[in-house]
Amino acid sequence: PQIHYQQSGLFHVVTKTANNNKWCTQNGIPERLVHHLCLTRDVHTALLHAFCILPNHLHLILTPGSAGLSAFMQSFKSNSIKDIQTLLHRKISWQKGFYDERIRDAKQQSSAVGYVLGNAVKHHLVKEIEDWPWTSFHFSSICDPLDIW
């Protein structure tokens, strides 16, 4: 099992689908993932700063709230997967655990946000950041601003 020693602060988080299945961008699913990110943010009094949903994984920049990073991710993954399985009428799952990097300074913050927003370009899904519809670039009204360090 993964151990996440740091539970509070600003994080870059990556979570993947089980078996690298590419269901995250199937019709209707990205909207539900965004919806569940917002619900989880609100329930955990967290801050959602940036995200990018790709076919088999998603990136988040977030401040997880007082319950901590593991509780935020467990809540998001368990609630979103139930909803998506209902939509797809089949069993799918997230990979166990998640990867996180605690962001400690302004340079790391800037780099992480750029990486998240540009991830669809990195994976050759689009040529320009603004061309990928499932990134916080297009959902600025639901994202919380980042502090300038």
Name its key features.
149 residues, alpha+beta, four-stranded antiparallel β-sheet, 4 strands, 34% helix, globular
Layout of strands and helices, then pairs:
Elements: E1 10-16, H1 29-43, E2 47-53, E3 57-63, H2 69-88, E4 99-103, H3 106-117, H4 119-122
Antiparallel strand pairs: 1-3, 1-4, 2-3
Helix pairs in contact: 1-2
What does this structure look like?
By secondary structure, the chain is of the alpha+beta class. 34% of the residues lie in helices and 17% in strands. The chain has helices at residues 29-43, 69-88, 106-117, 119-122; strands at 10-16, 47-53, 57-63, 99-103. The protein starts with 9 loop residues before the first strand and ends in a 27-residue tail after the last helix.
Short description:
The chain has 149 residues and is an alpha+beta fold. The chain is 34% helix and 17% strand.
